[in-house]
Amino acid sequence: ITFLDVSNNGILYNGSCVLLEDLTLRSPALHTLKMSNNQLDLAGTKQLSTLVGGAKHLQCLHIAGTSLKAQCATMLAASVIQNNSLTELDVHSNDMQRDGAQALADAVTKSLPRLASFRLSPDSFDSSSEGISVELKLQHWLDHYRFESPLEAAH
């Protein structure tokens, strides 16, 4: 398998974990994985992180609306840095809070300019003063790299 889109299939936490474990073992040539609007918990994120960190060909990862929490986003961030082929990452509409958004923002910064497309919605982190560093990083990307908000992508 090189392209898999299972978005909007109502896959629950256990199903995501099994799917990702199978992809890790059987799909070394995977270049696109779209899992948006399914459920992803800590166990599934561990499998996803293993897949992303070890995938030599994975270029596109869409996990928008997968209930990704801060701990999961932080775990995923390490594998994003480790992956040398990822060019597109969509994590909008998740509840990763400031810490998770900050971890992914740092990972994307370390992966530029290779990782040229990153989608993170403002509701992924709080707007308190603690969230300002994430917002400043996002502004830096707007100034220097391609960045789409979900609203811009719809137009």
Separate helix tally: 6
Q: Point out poorly predicted stretches.
A: 127-133, 147-151
Give the CA-CA distance, first to last residue. Answer: 31 Å
- Biggest sheet, strands in spatial order? 1-2-3-4-5
Question: What is the rounded Rg?
Answer: 14 Å
Shape: globular
**Would you tell me the structural class of the helices and strands?**
alpha/beta
Provide structural commentary.
- Helix 3 (70-82) runs parallel beside helix 4 (97-111).
- The chain is 47% helix and 10% strand.
- The chain has helices at 13-26, 42-54, 70-82, 97-111, 132-144, 150-154; strands at residues 3-5, 32-34, 60-62, 88-90, 117-119.
- It has 6 helices and 5 strands, in the order E-H-E-H-E-H-E-H-E-H-H.
- A 5-stranded parallel β-sheet has the order 1-2-3-4-5, with no helix packed on it.
- With 155 residues, it is α/β, with parallel strands linked by helices.
- The radius of gyration is 14 Å and the shape is globular.
Architecture blueprint of SSEs:
Elements: E1 3-5, H1 13-26, E2 32-34, H2 42-54, E3 60-62, H3 70-82, E4 88-90, H4 97-111, E5 117-119, H5 132-144, H6 150-154
Parallel strand pairs: 1-2, 2-3, 3-4, 4-5
Main traits of this protein?
6 helices, alpha/beta, single chain, 155 residues
Structure at a glance:
With 155 residues, the protein is α/β, with parallel strands linked by helices. It contains six helices and five strands, in the order βαβαβαβαβαα.
